[in-house]
Amino acid sequence: MLIVSTPEIPGKEICETLGLVSGNMVKSKHVGRDIMAGLKTLIGGEIAGYTEMLTEAREEAQKRMIQEAKSLGGDAIVNVRFTTSAIAQGMSELLAYGTAVKLQ
Question: Which of 3, 12, 44, 65 can bridge 96 by disulfide, Cβ–Cβ 3.0-4.6 Å?
C-alpha cells in the first residue's frame, strides 16, 4: 500500500478514486506519565512518555486507515493528513485521513 501526502504519486497513474478513508485512536495519559511529565517541566526537554504515546496512536490510526482503504480495494492512499484534538482532560484523539485510490 502506497501512502503519500501529495495528491498524485510520481510515476503512477490513478485510474479510480474510491473515497475518503480514515483511522483514529483516542489515547489517555496515565498517572506515571503525568508524574514524569510534571518533573520534566521543571528542567525542560522532551517528555518521552508523551512522545511515545502519540507515536503509538499515530501508528494505530494509520493502520486503521490502511485497513479501510484495503477493504475498498485500494492500492494507495493520497493526500494523507494527520490531526489531533483534545477529547477531554488527559485524552487526545489522533486522526489519519486521506483518499483511497486504485492505480493503473
Answer: 65
